[in-house]
Amino acid sequence: MRKRKSPTLLISILILGLIGVLGTACGAAPAENPAPQVKEEAPAEDQAEATDEATEAAEDDPNATLAEAQEAGSLKAQALEGGIEVVTDELDVSTPREHYGGEYRDVDSSDGVSFHPYTTSDSASWAYQGLVYDSSLLRLDPDTLEYIPNMAEKYTISEDGLTFTFYLRKDLKWSDGEPLTAHDFEWTYDQVIKPENGFPYLSQLEFITSYKALDDHTLEIKIDKIYAPALGQMSGLITPLPQHIWENLPWDDPEKNPEILKPTVFSGPYKLMDWERDKFAIFEANENYWYHGRPNFDKYTIEIVPSDDIAFEKMRSGETDTAYIPPEKLEDAKQTENINVYEWWSPAASWSYVGYNLREGFPTSDINVRHAINYAVDKDLLTEEVMLGQARRMCSIYADTLWVYNPDVPCYEYDPRESLRLFAEAGYTFMWDKTGEPLDVSTLDTFEIDPNGGLLDPNGEKVTGKLVDEKGEQLTLKFIYGPNNNQVRELISLIVQDYLADVGVQVDIEALEWASFLEAKSSSDPDWDMLTATWGGVLEPHISFTLFSEENIPDLNFGAYINKDVEQLFEEGGATYDTEIRKEKYGEVQRILAEDSPYMYLFYSKSRSGQNKRILGIEPKVIGISWNSNDWYISDEPAN
Question: Is the CA virtual torsion 191, 195, 201, 204 positive or negative?
Fold first, then answer.
């Protein structure tokens, strides 16, 4: 229930952090906890929860679910008065589940890299961490997407909106039986904010001025000025680690701290049994889990296989309960008797992109080159060829499912003539094979766009050639992607390579395994020009500032984009509860980011999940299907 006192201040609490994609653990990963960080998606980027009945497609309108939630006041702004107290409707969480037994079998083509919640930003690792660690003081209501108490049974906000007090449940405990207390939260926070510990999302905690355990069950957090996303970030950013285990171990040295790669004490629904890199990870039910006790499954296993195709075949044959469904396999999955397919347009859409290296000395540091590349690629056709109708175009950082979406931004529709003009502005010359001479860009209007890509000269002949610099050397760009077995990203890289070849640019593609790709992407001394990957979606627009903040170079801002106007707009957008002002600020952010083009924005994906019909207890909600994954259980009767 909710009590209101002293209605002197209007506090708008912005829903944030629902990641539309949960990464590799696409079946029973606990999805009810908000995770405010923007994360790098592992290859199963559009497989997570679903909001429709099994085997039925979602609404054609991707905004339908979002509009319903906004009408209920849950997404754009949940208006609460100052001096509030919010108490859980579920004080008693001791009732056990009733369908124990069996093993949930997952499979994926890439592995996590660490169980350390504060040194990773990839969804594969986060999926593992989500199984073994609980993190959220609050969680998202599966129907309304409002924040409701979770590990905290109650929270209060002071009349001035600057002090947040969380009252933890008294039955929280670690898997070894030790109490999980507010002191674990405070100790973890104190380690995380140390700059030398290198938390990639440290900037998201800078609004906090005080983070204190008042006693074992009371956590007080203070801020010094209004910050719209405060509640969600403070409730979801700190995953408590067991102080009694970690306090005598080094923070980031896996050789001296075995908890980083082989943790032994847990707060989540599962415990790690065994993890052999690039082969498998095996988890068992945590008997001391606080929320209605242990999950129904005795074990949760994730097998790592060489490719998405192999993973899919294992699901289709019944060897595994879930797997990533490649776009071209969706209809096949729907026709498979032992699989239920869930699909929907998520309001927190994950989006795929081509990222540019903006550092001095790289060709893509020139805005004319970035614009030229954007015009050289038919992104509508790329989206259709790669995703087969299961994705929608984007032109800036927010999809049209988000309440701050700005449609009035440059979109760079396919035009290889404009591409060659801009390359010329950047100092490059197109050497036409037909004449052996430079192409006169002033004549480009007499050329036609070839339906198969590139240009046709006035005689209808295909235009071929090389784009060369002032030294006569062909413009060559290094394009990386990972993991190397991801077919979607391979196809994106090949299509971009073909389109750029049409305007004389040579693209050298390098495919990397997942850990190597993450390392190369965020290197302080990168050797790539372009890369393709996916960012997990969020419902709170402010969270995206981490991708464009100068202080986040090279971790999240891997392309080294710097624009202080953008940073200022993000700051102004977070400093008010007025949703119209926020929409204006984030709308301007979208315009600038489209114009500056630190990314080539490609598409946001329809979410989908395949589940073996032997898995019961799935309840599709607005938030998806994984919100109650600990209640899922195995049918007594085998699936067909």
Answer: positive
Q: What is the pLDDT of residue 354?
A: 98
Distance CA 561, CA 599 (A): 10
Contacts of residue 631, Cβ cutoff 8 Å, sequence gap at least 6 = 97, 295, 296, 617
Q: How many other CB atoms are found less than 10 A from the CB of residue 614?
A: 18
Q: Provide the greatest CA pair distance for the chain.
A: 82
| CA separation, residue 138 to residues 34, 148, 159, 233, 259 (Å) | 8, 5, 20, 10, 26
- Cα distances from 384 to residues 32, 305, 389, 491, in angstroms, run 32, 27, 6, 12
Alpha-carbon span 21 to 514, nearest angstrom = 17
- pLDDT attached to residue 38: 61
In this predicted structure, what is the pLDDT of residue 341?
95
First to last CA, the chain: 44
Q: Which phi and psi angles does 261 have, rounded to 5°?
A: -105, -25
Bridge-based pairing of strands 506-511 and 476-481 is parallel
pLDDT score of 53: 36
Closest CA to 534 of 468, 605, 592, 485: 605
pLDDT at residue 433 in the model: 97
For 567, the enclosing helix (H) or strand (E) is helix 564-574
pLDDT at 345 (0 to 100): 80
HSE of 345, CA atoms in CB hemisphere, 13 A: 20
Instruction: For 119-185, give the secondary structure using H, E and C.
Output: CCCEHHHHHHHHHHCCCCCEEECCCCCCEEECCEEEEEECCCCCEEEEEECCCCECCCCCECCHHHH
- Given a contact cutoff of 8 angstroms between Cβ atoms, the answer to whether 217 and 180 are in contact is no
Strand partners, 340: 611
Structure letter (DSSP) for residue 565: H
CB-CB contact of 114 with 125 (8 Å): yes
Structure tokens at 479: 């394009």
**Which residues is 4 bridged to in the sheet?**
84
The DSSP code for 5 is -
Q: Measured between alpha carbons, how far is 140 from 148 in angstroms, rounded to an integer?
A: 6
Is the bond leading into 554 cis (omega within 30 degrees of zero)?
yes
Q: Are 534 and 40 in contact, with CB atoms under 8 Å apart?
A: yes
Structure token pair of residue 35: 């995770």
Strand arrangement, sheet containing 299-304? 103-108, 299-304, 280-285, 270-276
The list of the chain residues with pLDDT below 50 reads 1-36, 44-67, 69-81, 640
Go through the chain and tell me how many residues it has. Answer: 640
429-459 core/surface letters (b: 16 or more CB in 10 A; e: else): bbbbeeeeeebebeebeebeeeeebbbebee
Q: Are 295 and 615 in contact (CB under 8 A)?
A: no
HEC string of 350-378 equals CEEEEEECCCCCCHHHCHHHHHHHHHHCC
